[in-house]
Amino acid sequence: QMILREMEFAIEQKQFSIYLQPIYSVVKKCDTSAEALVRWVHPKEGMISPARFIPLFERNGFIVRLDHYVWEEVCRLLAEERDKLGRVVPVSVNVSRLDFYDENLLEFFMGLMKKYDLEPWMIKLEVTESAYTDNPQQIMTMMRRFQDAGFKFLMDDFGSGYSSLSMLRNLPVNILKIDMKFVQEIVTSFRAAKIMEHMVQLAHDIHMEVVIEGVETKEQVEFLQEIGCDEIQGYYFSKPMPKDEYIERLAGSP
Ligand code: G
Ligand code: G
Ligand code: MN
Ligand code: NA
Protein backbone atom coordinates (compact mmCIF):
# COMPACT_ATOMS: atom_id res chain seq x y z
CA GLN A 1 0.00 0.00 0.00
CA MET A 2 2.83 2.28 1.00
CA ILE A 3 4.68 1.47 -2.21
CA LEU A 4 1.60 2.07 -4.34
CA ARG A 5 1.14 5.51 -2.81
CA GLU A 6 4.77 6.32 -3.63
CA MET A 7 4.23 5.16 -7.18
CA GLU A 8 1.17 7.35 -7.57
CA PHE A 9 3.25 10.25 -6.25
CA ALA A 10 5.93 9.42 -8.83
CA ILE A 11 3.33 9.72 -11.60
CA GLU A 12 2.11 13.05 -10.25
CA GLN A 13 5.71 14.28 -10.10
CA LYS A 14 6.13 13.27 -13.74
CA GLN A 15 9.00 10.94 -12.92
CA PHE A 16 7.93 8.60 -15.71
CA SER A 17 8.65 9.78 -19.20
CA ILE A 18 7.81 8.31 -22.55
CA TYR A 19 10.57 7.62 -25.05
CA LEU A 20 9.86 6.82 -28.68
CA GLN A 21 11.91 4.49 -30.83
CA PRO A 22 11.24 4.96 -34.57
CA ILE A 23 10.52 1.88 -36.68
CA TYR A 24 11.80 1.88 -40.26
CA SER A 25 9.91 0.43 -43.20
CA VAL A 26 12.12 -1.53 -45.58
CA VAL A 27 9.54 -1.15 -48.33
CA LYS A 28 8.80 2.56 -47.94
CA LYS A 29 12.38 3.42 -46.95
CA CYS A 30 11.29 5.72 -44.14
CA ASP A 31 10.03 5.55 -40.57
CA THR A 32 6.44 4.36 -40.52
CA SER A 33 5.82 3.93 -36.80
CA ALA A 34 7.47 4.00 -33.39
CA GLU A 35 7.34 2.09 -30.11
CA ALA A 36 6.62 3.91 -26.85
CA LEU A 37 9.00 2.82 -24.09
CA VAL A 38 8.61 4.16 -20.58
CA ARG A 39 11.57 5.45 -18.54
CA TRP A 40 11.68 6.20 -14.83
CA VAL A 41 13.73 9.23 -13.92
CA HIS A 42 14.00 8.69 -10.17
CA PRO A 43 14.92 11.73 -8.02
CA LYS A 44 17.61 9.77 -6.18
CA GLU A 45 18.50 6.84 -8.43
CA GLY A 46 18.47 8.67 -11.76
CA MET A 47 17.32 6.88 -14.90
CA ILE A 48 15.98 3.42 -14.10
CA SER A 49 15.49 0.99 -16.97
CA PRO A 50 12.08 -0.68 -17.40
CA ALA A 51 13.87 -4.03 -17.40
CA ARG A 52 14.31 -3.32 -13.67
CA PHE A 53 10.98 -1.85 -12.68
CA ILE A 54 8.45 -3.51 -15.02
CA PRO A 55 8.82 -6.96 -13.41
CA LEU A 56 8.40 -5.34 -9.98
CA PHE A 57 5.31 -3.42 -11.13
CA GLU A 58 3.88 -6.61 -12.56
CA ARG A 59 4.17 -8.19 -9.12
CA ASN A 60 2.64 -5.32 -7.17
CA GLY A 61 0.01 -4.51 -9.79
CA PHE A 62 1.15 -0.94 -10.38
CA ILE A 63 1.84 -1.75 -14.03
CA VAL A 64 -1.87 -1.32 -14.80
CA ARG A 65 -1.87 2.27 -13.51
CA LEU A 66 1.42 3.03 -15.26
CA ASP A 67 0.28 1.59 -18.60
CA HIS A 68 -2.90 3.69 -18.50
CA TYR A 69 -0.71 6.73 -17.91
CA VAL A 70 1.64 5.81 -20.78
CA TRP A 71 -1.23 5.23 -23.22
CA GLU A 72 -2.71 8.62 -22.42
CA GLU A 73 0.67 10.34 -22.83
CA VAL A 74 1.00 8.61 -26.21
CA CYS A 75 -2.43 9.91 -27.23
CA ARG A 76 -1.38 13.43 -26.27
CA LEU A 77 1.70 12.99 -28.45
CA LEU A 78 -0.42 11.80 -31.39
CA ALA A 79 -2.75 14.78 -31.00
CA GLU A 80 0.27 17.08 -30.93
CA GLU A 81 1.53 15.54 -34.20
CA ARG A 82 -1.85 16.06 -35.77
CA ASP A 83 -1.99 19.70 -34.64
CA LYS A 84 1.62 20.66 -35.36
CA LEU A 85 2.45 18.55 -38.41
CA GLY A 86 -0.94 17.83 -39.90
CA ARG A 87 -0.24 14.11 -39.93
CA VAL A 88 0.02 11.24 -37.48
CA VAL A 89 2.58 8.44 -37.42
CA PRO A 90 1.21 5.41 -35.56
CA VAL A 91 2.77 4.42 -32.24
CA SER A 92 2.74 1.00 -30.65
CA VAL A 93 2.29 0.76 -26.90
CA ASN A 94 3.10 -2.12 -24.61
CA VAL A 95 0.18 -3.87 -22.94
CA SER A 96 0.85 -6.02 -19.90
CA ARG A 97 -1.00 -9.30 -19.40
CA LEU A 98 -2.48 -7.79 -16.22
CA ASP A 99 -4.18 -5.07 -18.29
CA PHE A 100 -6.40 -7.72 -19.88
CA TYR A 101 -8.06 -8.50 -16.55
CA ASP A 102 -9.88 -5.20 -16.88
CA GLU A 103 -13.20 -5.87 -18.58
CA ASN A 104 -13.35 -2.21 -19.63
CA LEU A 105 -9.97 -2.09 -21.37
CA LEU A 106 -11.46 -1.41 -24.79
CA GLU A 107 -13.74 1.25 -23.34
CA PHE A 108 -10.68 2.96 -21.87
CA PHE A 109 -8.96 3.05 -25.27
CA MET A 110 -12.14 4.26 -26.99
CA GLY A 111 -12.42 6.97 -24.35
CA LEU A 112 -8.90 8.14 -25.22
CA MET A 113 -9.72 8.11 -28.95
CA LYS A 114 -12.71 10.33 -28.24
CA LYS A 115 -10.95 12.64 -25.78
CA TYR A 116 -8.03 13.33 -28.14
CA ASP A 117 -9.98 12.99 -31.39
CA LEU A 118 -7.85 10.11 -32.69
CA GLU A 119 -8.53 6.95 -34.66
CA PRO A 120 -7.73 3.34 -33.67
CA TRP A 121 -5.18 2.81 -36.49
CA MET A 122 -2.96 5.40 -34.82
CA ILE A 123 -2.22 3.22 -31.81
CA LYS A 124 -1.10 -0.41 -31.98
CA LEU A 125 -1.06 -2.79 -29.07
CA GLU A 126 2.06 -4.78 -28.36
CA VAL A 127 1.61 -7.89 -26.22
CA THR A 128 4.52 -10.12 -25.34
CA GLU A 129 4.07 -13.73 -26.36
CA SER A 130 4.33 -14.99 -22.77
CA ALA A 131 1.23 -12.96 -21.81
CA TYR A 132 -1.00 -15.09 -23.99
CA THR A 133 -0.30 -18.24 -22.00
CA ASP A 134 -2.05 -16.74 -18.97
CA ASN A 135 -5.72 -16.96 -19.92
CA PRO A 136 -5.75 -17.33 -23.69
CA GLN A 137 -9.51 -17.56 -23.98
CA GLN A 138 -10.20 -14.28 -22.23
CA ILE A 139 -7.37 -12.47 -24.02
CA MET A 140 -8.53 -13.78 -27.38
CA THR A 141 -12.10 -12.60 -26.80
CA MET A 142 -10.83 -9.18 -25.78
CA MET A 143 -8.50 -8.97 -28.79
CA ARG A 144 -11.34 -9.70 -31.18
CA ARG A 145 -13.33 -6.82 -29.72
CA PHE A 146 -10.32 -4.52 -30.16
CA GLN A 147 -9.89 -5.65 -33.74
CA ASP A 148 -13.55 -5.10 -34.52
CA ALA A 149 -13.02 -1.55 -33.26
CA GLY A 150 -10.07 -1.09 -35.67
CA PHE A 151 -7.01 -1.64 -33.44
CA LYS A 152 -4.07 -3.81 -34.49
CA PHE A 153 -2.00 -6.17 -32.36
CA LEU A 154 1.67 -6.97 -32.44
CA MET A 155 3.01 -10.13 -30.86
CA ASP A 156 6.15 -8.99 -29.06
CA ASP A 157 9.26 -11.11 -28.38
CA PHE A 158 8.05 -13.87 -30.69
CA GLY A 159 10.25 -16.92 -30.44
CA SER A 160 11.67 -16.06 -27.03
CA GLY A 161 10.33 -19.11 -25.28
CA TYR A 162 6.57 -19.30 -24.96
CA SER A 163 5.61 -19.28 -28.60
CA SER A 164 3.62 -22.09 -30.02
CA LEU A 165 2.21 -22.59 -33.45
CA SER A 166 -1.29 -22.83 -32.01
CA MET A 167 -0.88 -19.24 -30.85
CA LEU A 168 -0.23 -18.26 -34.45
CA ARG A 169 -3.16 -20.38 -35.54
CA ASN A 170 -5.66 -18.94 -33.06
CA LEU A 171 -4.72 -15.44 -31.99
CA PRO A 172 -5.97 -12.48 -34.00
CA VAL A 173 -2.51 -10.90 -34.22
CA ASN A 174 -1.65 -8.67 -37.21
CA ILE A 175 2.06 -8.16 -36.81
CA LEU A 176 4.78 -10.48 -35.60
CA LYS A 177 7.72 -8.93 -33.78
CA ILE A 178 10.52 -11.44 -33.74
CA ASP A 179 12.62 -11.62 -30.61
CA MET A 180 15.95 -9.85 -30.96
CA LYS A 181 17.94 -12.96 -30.05
CA PHE A 182 17.39 -14.25 -33.59
CA VAL A 183 18.77 -11.23 -35.42
CA GLN A 184 21.67 -11.00 -33.01
CA GLU A 185 22.68 -14.54 -33.91
CA ILE A 186 22.30 -14.53 -37.68
CA VAL A 187 26.04 -14.22 -38.20
CA THR A 188 27.08 -16.89 -35.71
CA SER A 189 24.18 -19.29 -36.01
CA PHE A 190 23.12 -20.87 -39.28
CA ARG A 191 19.97 -22.09 -37.52
CA ALA A 192 19.00 -18.68 -36.16
CA ALA A 193 19.32 -17.21 -39.66
CA LYS A 194 17.29 -19.97 -41.33
CA ILE A 195 14.58 -19.92 -38.66
CA MET A 196 14.33 -16.17 -39.06
CA GLU A 197 14.02 -16.49 -42.82
CA HIS A 198 11.25 -19.05 -42.53
CA MET A 199 9.42 -17.19 -39.77
CA VAL A 200 9.18 -14.20 -42.10
CA GLN A 201 7.90 -16.45 -44.87
CA LEU A 202 5.39 -18.14 -42.58
CA ALA A 203 4.11 -14.81 -41.25
CA HIS A 204 3.60 -13.49 -44.77
CA ASP A 205 1.85 -16.68 -45.86
CA ILE A 206 -0.73 -16.20 -43.11
CA HIS A 207 -1.03 -12.48 -43.94
CA MET A 208 0.92 -11.11 -41.02
CA GLU A 209 3.57 -8.42 -41.22
CA VAL A 210 6.96 -8.81 -39.58
CA VAL A 211 8.96 -6.38 -37.48
CA ILE A 212 12.51 -7.22 -36.46
CA GLU A 213 13.81 -5.45 -33.39
CA GLY A 214 17.28 -5.14 -31.90
CA VAL A 215 18.91 -4.43 -35.25
CA GLU A 216 22.34 -2.89 -34.75
CA THR A 217 24.48 -3.48 -37.85
CA LYS A 218 24.46 -2.88 -41.59
CA GLU A 219 25.03 -6.58 -42.13
CA GLN A 220 21.81 -7.37 -40.26
CA VAL A 221 19.85 -4.77 -42.23
CA GLU A 222 21.04 -6.27 -45.52
CA PHE A 223 20.09 -9.76 -44.42
CA LEU A 224 16.64 -8.59 -43.31
CA GLN A 225 16.04 -6.80 -46.59
CA GLU A 226 17.03 -9.93 -48.45
CA ILE A 227 14.58 -12.16 -46.55
CA GLY A 228 11.79 -9.61 -47.03
CA CYS A 229 11.00 -8.43 -43.53
CA ASP A 230 8.66 -5.43 -43.45
CA GLU A 231 9.90 -3.18 -40.67
CA ILE A 232 13.09 -2.76 -38.66
CA GLN A 233 13.56 -1.35 -35.17
CA GLY A 234 16.95 -0.96 -33.53
CA TYR A 235 19.94 1.15 -32.65
CA TYR A 236 21.19 0.96 -36.25
CA PHE A 237 18.42 3.36 -37.28
CA SER A 238 17.64 5.06 -33.98
CA LYS A 239 17.66 4.74 -30.23
CA PRO A 240 14.60 5.47 -28.12
CA MET A 241 14.37 9.27 -27.76
CA PRO A 242 12.41 11.81 -25.69
CA LYS A 243 9.11 13.04 -27.06
CA ASP A 244 10.29 16.51 -28.13
CA GLU A 245 13.23 15.09 -30.03
CA TYR A 246 10.89 12.60 -31.70
CA ILE A 247 8.48 15.34 -32.82
CA GLU A 248 11.38 17.37 -34.18
CA ARG A 249 12.59 14.37 -36.13
CA LEU A 250 9.12 13.85 -37.59
CA ALA A 251 8.90 17.52 -38.55
CA GLY A 252 12.13 17.17 -40.52
CA SER A 253 11.03 14.12 -42.53
CA PRO A 254 8.42 13.70 -45.26
O1 G B 1 13.23 -0.07 -23.32
P1 G B 1 13.68 -1.34 -22.67
O2 G B 1 14.40 -2.35 -23.50
O3 G B 1 14.49 -1.09 -21.45
O4 G B 1 12.33 -2.08 -22.15
C1 G B 1 12.43 -3.20 -21.36
C2 G B 1 11.11 -3.91 -21.29
O5 G B 1 10.09 -3.08 -20.71
C3 G B 1 10.59 -4.33 -22.64
O6 G B 1 10.21 -5.68 -22.53
C4 G B 1 9.38 -3.50 -22.89
O7 G B 1 8.41 -4.21 -23.59
C5 G B 1 8.92 -3.16 -21.48
N1 G B 1 8.23 -1.89 -21.48
C6 G B 1 8.71 -0.70 -21.87
N2 G B 1 7.79 0.28 -21.73
C7 G B 1 6.66 -0.33 -21.25
C8 G B 1 5.35 0.13 -20.91
O8 G B 1 4.99 1.31 -21.02
N3 G B 1 4.49 -0.81 -20.43
C9 G B 1 4.82 -2.11 -20.29
N4 G B 1 3.90 -2.95 -19.82
N5 G B 1 6.04 -2.58 -20.61
C10 G B 1 6.94 -1.70 -21.09
O1 G C 1 10.30 -6.12 -24.89
P1 G C 1 10.35 -5.01 -25.88
O2 G C 1 10.56 -5.55 -27.23
O3 G C 1 9.16 -4.11 -25.85
O4 G C 1 11.59 -4.10 -25.55
C1 G C 1 12.41 -3.60 -26.50
C2 G C 1 13.67 -3.23 -25.81
O5 G C 1 14.77 -3.37 -26.67
C3 G C 1 13.67 -1.81 -25.29
O6 G C 1 14.13 -1.78 -23.99
C4 G C 1 14.69 -1.10 -26.17
O7 G C 1 15.38 -0.10 -25.45
C5 G C 1 15.62 -2.24 -26.54
N1 G C 1 16.26 -2.05 -27.84
C6 G C 1 15.79 -1.32 -28.87
N2 G C 1 16.63 -1.38 -29.93
C7 G C 1 17.67 -2.16 -29.54
C8 G C 1 18.85 -2.61 -30.21
O8 G C 1 19.13 -2.29 -31.36
N3 G C 1 19.68 -3.41 -29.49
C9 G C 1 19.40 -3.81 -28.21
N4 G C 1 20.27 -4.59 -27.60
N5 G C 1 18.29 -3.41 -27.57
C10 G C 1 17.43 -2.60 -28.22
MN1 MN D 1 7.59 -4.02 -27.02
NA1 NA E 1 10.58 -7.46 -27.75
UniProtKB/TrEMBL annotation:
It comes from the Bacteria. Keywords: Phosphoprotein. Residues 1-254 form the EAL domain. One of its GO terms (biological process) is phosphorelay signal transduction system. GO terms for molecular function: cyclic-guanylate-specific phosphodiesterase activity. This is Diguanylate cyclase (GGDEF) domain-containing protein.
